[in-house]
Amino acid sequence: MRASRFFISTLKDAPSDAEIVSHQLMMRAGMIKRLGSGIYTYMPTGLRVIRKVEAIIRDEMNKAGGIELLMPLVQPAELWQETGRWEKMGPELMRVKDRHGREYAIQPTSEEVITDVVRSEIKSYRQLPLNFYHIQTKFRDERRPRFGLMRGREFTMKDAYSFDRDEASMKASYKIMYDAYTAIFNRFGLTFRAVAADNGAIGGSGSHEFHVIASTGEDAIVYCPTSDYAANMEAAEALPLAAARAAATAPLTKTATPGATKCEAVAEMLKLPLNQTVKTIALTVEKEVAGKQVLENWMLLLRGDHDLNEIKVGKVPGLAGHRFATEAEILACYGSIPGYLGPIGTKQPVTIVADRTVANMADFVCGANEEGFHYTGANWVRDLPEGLVADLRNVVEGDASPDGKGVLAIERGIEVGHVFQLGTSYSESMKATFLDENGKPAPLQMGCYGIGVTRILGAAIEQNFDDKGIIWPAAIAPFEVVLCPMGMDRSEMVKTEVESLYAALQAAGVDVIVDDRGLRPGAMFADWELIGVPHRVVIGERGLKEGNLEYQGRRDLEATAVPVAGMALFIKGKLSQ
Amino acid sequence: MRASRFFISTLKDAPSDAEIVSHQLMMRAGMIKRLGSGIYTYMPTGLRVIRKVEAIIRDEMNKAGGIELLMPLVQPAELWQETGRWEKMGPELMRVKDRHGREYAIQPTSEEVITDVVRSEIKSYRQLPLNFYHIQTKFRDERRPRFGLMRGREFTMKDAYSFDRDEASMKASYKIMYDAYTAIFNRFGLTFRAVAADNGAIGGSGSHEFHVIASTGEDAIVYCPTSDYAANMEAAEALPLAAARAAATAPLTKTATPGATKCEAVAEMLKLPLNQTVKTIALTVEKEVAGKQVLENWMLLLRGDHDLNEIKVGKVPGLAGHRFATEAEILACYGSIPGYLGPIGTKQPVTIVADRTVANMADFVCGANEEGFHYTGANWVRDLPEGLVADLRNVVEGDASPDGKGVLAIERGIEVGHVFQLGTSYSESMKATFLDENGKPAPLQMGCYGIGVTRILGAAIEQNFDDKGIIWPAAIAPFEVVLCPMGMDRSEMVKTEVESLYAALQAAGVDVIVDDRGLRPGAMFADWELIGVPHRVVIGERGLKEGNLEYQGRRDLEATAVPVAGMALFIKGKLSQ
Q1: Contacts 24+ apart (CB under 8 A), B428-434
Q2: Were both Cys, which of A270, A306, B91, B224 would link to A99 (CB 3.0–4.6 Å)?
Q3: Do A72 and B116 touch (CB under 8 A)?
Q4: What is the sign of the dihedral through the CA atoms of B329, B330, B335 and B337?
Q5: What angle do CA B172, B177, B178 make, to 5 degrees?
Q6: Strand partners, A96
Q7: What is the predicted ipTM?
Q8: Which residues form the Aminoacyl-transfer RNA synthetases class-II family profile domain (chains A, B) (predicted)?
Q9: Rounded to a whole number, what is the distance in Å from the CA of B107 to chain A's nearest CA?
């Protein structure tokens, strides 16, 4: 490519609405252009990166037995109604009516359509397993689009769907995709981590997220540096901090704590460590029993310095449909205003669930169900009966790893891929069956697998930038190498060498751009550092007279002189590293 | 590719709603799958063809200096309001509201967005010319989607937009695109014709359509076999059939023609040839003059056997906003009911426009403006004043070519590409200007250039099929070559040779598929003939024992024995033809 035939448009300053570095740098490097809220035109430089990302994904998906097709953007509402997602998805699902008033979804994902394709195509177990994928524009009407391509409304996603005859085979297909994803993110040249994840609303039984590691990442991910345990914060299991409960040593004492409604204030007032306090969270579950609405009171107990993990709460048997109790409900149940609640002496019966750590505490502090009072020296069995125990909290740095092989660390990540074991939730609601070995219809076992193609760009930049701009890994850089001639229009010598090196690199299959725009060196270098091309060669008369060209890697602090004749090989060597 | 790792799903019969052969064959070959009205999933075999079409387009667009970007599908209504197309496009433009009630168009084309991109990026004539393109999903809410990919609602289009400093430069950019389109359609291996076209609603000053020639084509296209004249029916110029007017020989005679309201009936009743009759078409033009609405009466005269060309009528000065006259208007103006109208003796003044051929007629028959009567022997000058003359009719086979180099022929075509000289219509309404050499702002001169990517598939099939199925040109075939082993599972000899030939062809860059599904020969051959792979090699024990493989081209009536060792080279030879 010659820069004079390409379109390069860089900016000194990022627009004020660009809050994060990847958004700022993509705008400044002229990779994207905002059209509307969360909607971007991918400019030529940005599109080149997208195409390279797509090519790597496609190659690895094909190697893993994926079969590419292309499903429509505009999808009939009827299919989405079959699975109930037409209602469930809410305003995130962009809906449109055609001239005849028929309703359609603009696809945010394609489970319904692929299941519809497969239910009409697959008759027998002999046709299985199958894995279909497509790389297609998606739309999700985010409430608050932001961060450029990181949380856009229109974006490109690769979504794959596997179909198997039984769970074991589905898990094997899932493993193949997990491995393919690992290969894909390795080829991108990004530091990433696969973590166990909660399945969330999509249903099913197992799932992993792939995160690009970046200090600016939205998500906290948990891992054990001395084992292969890794999970996202929602899914990371918290073990009890003490293996067993200590014996009670203090008497249960009602203590005045006027105005102290938070554990921190109570601990400070009583001069006790925060980790001896217990906080109470009052929940309500609405149930229908024999046609009548019944309210159940539930109470969660968490150590004062721990954070509640709502995903885990939702998994406690009986708490799937919980909500926080209202102030009126709290007054009726506990006889106290919030801030002083506790498990001892409630007015109405309450089902108590203690976090694993709380269940092993002794001599703890908790609310006394009376405004302005807490108990100190509370102990299980002696002062209150042992109740249900569950993992209710977020892990913290230094917790024991659930696999027993070390302690947990936490880092920040950006979710760029997600693999799910869907099981039969879609195939059952859409009646997608096949005939098994015995000629009996059985629902297809499904998996689904997504990669946020355009999001990769943002994540790669959040992980790889400096004060000059982006630093692309070579595999997904818009160009691998830029040739910067000094005074090409004045020097025949420079011109000849540029053309010769350009031809040699192209012949070697290197993706190279010559900057023939005639800019002065400072502006030219600044452009390419901002755009983030990983390898730069400067061709100048002074060097040429000594038989040299100047090479500088994007992360190098200084240039290296390389003999003219050896440059093409030198570059090939750099690219194969 | 191995068929066992691909997805092949063929049908004996096409669904009943598939009216044309390309739709039937694409459904039967498993290339597309209907999701909704005019909305299709591109199945793996179909997608391979689409990708090949796209790759050829991309390659030639890049060679021609086009710069690829990707514009969004969902485009803010405000941009479409700037050009007035939000209103003008009517229900074909699919509109959608987001969760905040903001309106968007789902792009049917991207003039507005690219003009918006360019107006903010282009400051100076030094940045011009520029040509941006993208290959993207489009949506057009057709009133009656039909014919599979031929007139779908969701489809893929390549649209390019050129920006120039002046008209001469714009015309040069247009010529480059015209040539690139010629190269593209040649590379597809399709018989096509570029024809001059009317610009239609898109505005501007010049345009050509690219048609794939097929007897089932929707459009009539006109060409001169002995010159390079070619135009579509709307644009093809009709010369007068006689070079000069003959002298009057018959007297003007009012003749009873009771019940004969059509030229055919009049000619039959009077025993005169149809080409001596003239038909009258009454038009009305509504105008505002000094704030008052005024109705103008216009009359078109056409020879009895000719068809009116409404596009041409709209181009007659004064007739841009015409409509057909109502019966009440006709009665008031002519004093007669329709069917007996004529240019002689109208009640109100009428502006008469004669088709070029009518202007040179003598002794003709026309209505007498009295129910049940026509004139015979009507002659210009003697019986009625010479009026305006214009080209008003469709050409017919055998008409003189407007370039004077032969006579016109007519064939059927399918429009697959269109190039337009847009001029400044979009840049003026959107205020897309640049600073010229004198530092003065001037509107950008634009061109736009479309290729219907998915439509190419339908058009290629309409041109290339037989009773067995599709016959793809090799350049866009889903696979170039299929290897059909006979009893691969039973014969080690067959298996070894299949693998060896597969490896040799792959190494030679041939897109080859091995049918390792284990079907019996009849079913296997029928599948590949239906899918339309252009080259087939059969590997069987019998042939191998004689040192031969069997080659058969998709259009060949018989197979050819080719020595085993020479097959790879033989195939390469076939593909380079």
Answers
A1: B429/B82, B429/B83, B429/B84, B430/B79, B430/B82, B430/B83, B430/B112, B430/B115, B430/B116, B430/B119, B431/B119, B432/B115, B432/B116, B432/B118, B432/B119, B432/B122, B433/B119, B434/B122, B434/B123, B434/B124, B434/B125, B434/B127, B434/B128, B434/B165
A2: B91
A3: no
A4: negative
A5: 95
A6: A104
A7: 0.90
A8: 33-473
A9: 12
Number of neighbouring beta carbons within 10 Å of residue B12 = 7
Per-residue pLDDT tens over the stretch B379-434: 999 999 998 999 999 999 999 999 999 999 999 999 999 999 999 999 999 999 99
Judged by CB atoms closer than 8 Å, whether chains meet at B35 and A153 is answered as no
Strands A481-485 and A535-539: parallel
Residue type, B117: V
Stated as kind and residue range, the H or E segment containing A453 is helix A453-463
d(Cα A532, Cα A406) in Å, to the nearest integer? 39
Provide the shortest C-alpha distance from residue B143 to chain A (in Å): 8
Q: How far is A76 from chain B (nearest CA, A)?
A: 7
pLDDT at B202: 45
Residues 6+ apart with CB under 8 A from B405: B224, B226, B227, B229
pLDDT at position A203 over 60: no
In chain A, which among 104-143 make CB contacts under 8 A with chain B?
104, 106, 113, 116-117, 120-121, 130, 132, 136-137, 139, 141, 143
Q: Could you give all domains of chain A from N- to C-terminal order, each with its CATH number?
A: 16-235+410-462 (3.30.930.10), 253-390 (3.90.960.10), 479-576 (3.40.50.800)
Rounded to two decimals, the pTM is 0.91
Partners of residue A43 in chain B, C-beta under 8 Å: 69, 117
Distance in angstroms (rounded) separating the CA atoms of residues B524 and B57: 32
pLDDT mean over B73-79: 97
- The rounded mean pLDDT for chain A is 95
Q: Record the tokens describing residue A69, joined without a space.
A: 């097709």
User: How many Å apart are CA B285 and CA B307, to the nearest integer?
Assistant: 21
3-state secondary structure (DSSP) of residue A412: strand
Q: How confident is the model at residue A205 (pLDDT cuts 50, 70, 90)?
A: low
Tell me the one-letter amino acid at A250: A
Say which residue the tokens 């610009």 belong to: B199
**Neighboring chain A residues of B121 at a CB cutoff of 8 Å:** 7, 9
Give me the residues paired with residue A219 across strands.
A413
Band of residue A467 on the pLDDT scale cut at 50, 70, 90: very high
Name the residue of chain B whose CA is nearest to A1's CA: B62
CB-based contact A72 B35, cutoff 8 Å: yes
CB A108 within 8 A of CB A136: no
When computed from its CA atoms, the radius of gyration of chain B, rounded to whole angstroms, is 30
Partners of A456 in the β-ladder:
none
* A-chain residues near B154 (CB < 8 A): 72-74
Does the beta-carbon distance from B75 to A121 stay under 8 Å?
A: no
Q: How far is A136 from chain B (nearest CA, A)?
A: 9
**Average pLDDT for A513-526:** 96
Q: Cα–Cα distances in Å, from B356 out to B134, B240, B272?
A: 44, 5, 21
What token pair was written down for B404? Answer: 């004077």
A3-26 pLDDT tens trace: 999 999 999 998 888 889 999 999
Show residues of chain A in contact with B81, CB under 8 Å: none
Nearest CA in chain B to A92: B99
CB pairs under 8 A between A and B: 139
Please say whether the beta carbons of B190 and B217 come within 8 A: no
